[in-house]
Amino acid sequence: MADKVIITTDTGSDLRPENLEKFHIDGMIPFHITLGNKSYRDFYECQPHDLFKFFDEHNQVPKTAACSPSDYFEFFEPFAREGCDIVHIAMNSVFSSSYTNSLLAAEQIKKTYGTSVYSVDTYTLTGAQALMAIRAAELRDGGMPAKEISEQIVAMVPHVRTNFLLGGMNYAAKGGRCSMLVAFGANLLKLYPMMHIDEKGIITSPKKFRGSVKSVQDQYMDYVLDLADKYADYRRVIIGYTSDNRELIANMHKRLKQYGKFEEIIESVTNCTTATHGGPNTIYMIFADKY
């Protein structure tokens, strides 16, 4: 067994520096974001407001790209060189090749350094992925070895509910995920879809809410808190958003404080990958089930 276990993730998790430090998560590899003809590292060099500015100026959705096997090898190598095993909490393999690429890098790390990288396909992203990374760090801090941690996180996958509310349909239409006609109709009727990711990583839209941005946010939170009443592990909830709309953020905090059941509220700004698909005013509130 390695002397130390390292917990890593990618920027798909939406974890901010203060949360990485608080929960002792050792590293976060950035995806690649292309604005025009220039590539940036998600989070470290590019934030959602940069994407929205680019969209407004060019009427074009930025492109995203997964980390390559060589990116992962360079990311894992300093930890492996120190003799550490690694548990990597990866973004949904249905959306991205990042998980597969991390496995290829793990094989090379094993051959080169003899240490193990256990990469976990979370079949999700954003706050749900963050919850798994935090739980992995807690298990590590409790003395659990890397292989067992990865098994525990795999078992956790079906018990984290990923529901998020899109801020509109324009970005989905420009990115080819729905037709411009559908987006026009949704905007005309003030319809906002809630997206759900199931335990196999498949995304659907089980509900749509109608009204102003504030009204729709309240409807979404009512729906998610009803689920919490039935299923939630109340240790923590993660709220996230793509744009700095302080009214919406304050409303989320207010509703959760009124609800009063979660022991910890973690706030995050979404990664650029999620912001590219959702656009401004996309929000989420995510928790794990009791199991």
Task: Give keywords.
Hypothetical Protein Tm841, Chain: A,domain 3, six-stranded mixed sheet, 13 strands, alpha/beta, 44% helix, 291 residues, 22% strand, Rossmann fold, 2 domains
Concise overview:
It is built from eleven helices and 13 strands. The chain is α/β, with parallel strands linked by helices. The strands form three sheets. It has a six-stranded mixed beta sheet with strand order 10-9-8-13-11-12, with helices on both faces. A four-stranded parallel beta sheet has the order 2-1-6-7, with helices on both faces. The chain has a three-stranded antiparallel beta sheet with strand order 4-3-5, with helices on one face.
What fraction of residues sit in β-strands? 15-25%
Instruction: Assign the CATH topology of the largest domain.
Output: Hypothetical Protein Tm841, Chain: A,domain 3
Helix share bin: 40-55%
CATH C-level class of the largest domain: Alpha Beta
Give a short account of the largest sheet: 6 strands, mixed
What is the straight-line distance between the termini? Answer: 29 Å
Q: Which spans of ≥5 residues are poorly predicted at pLDDT below 50? A: 173-186
Radius of gyration over all CA atoms, rounded: 19 Å
**Strand order of the main beta sheet, please?**
10-9-8-13-11-12
